[in-house]
Amino acid sequence: xxxxxxxxxxxxxxxxxxxxxxxxxxxxxxxxxxxxxxxxxxxxxxxxxxxxxxxxxxxxxxxxxxxxxxxxxxxxxxxxxxxxxxxxxxxxxxxxxxxxxxxxxxxxxxxxxxxxxxxxxxxxxxxxxxxxxxxxxxxxxxxxxxxxxxxxx
Length: 153
Prior knowledge:
By secondary structure, the chain is an alpha/beta fold. The protein is built from 5 helices and 7 strands. The chain has a 5-stranded parallel beta sheet, with helices on both faces. It is globular and about 35 Å long.
């Protein structure tokens, strides 16, 4: 067993307004084991940086596990080793498309949040059974508020 195999959540406290105004404090938890499946290494690094910046912006003390993968052959192995809380996945990943991969993950391995990522606004606007396999579809370039919304527990 790996040290990071235990389920862990991070507490975030975000204060809005003047210091000492306890009525303006919002508390929430975020999912802390994150897998980014993306075939473009630059986008993976950018996405990971956005999540890490959110961690510092909102003073998350606990460590986040953020893994990136662009090899469809090892994605299932990674999921077998680590119980991820959430997956962000490019809809056009690797040798198979993200829709085929999300079907495999839903059927065999993963019953947690799977968020599709795409540059194609048409995917975001489609409502069909395949797209419904994802918990959400977010557009690139990424909006940190949408990422944070999906990371909330």
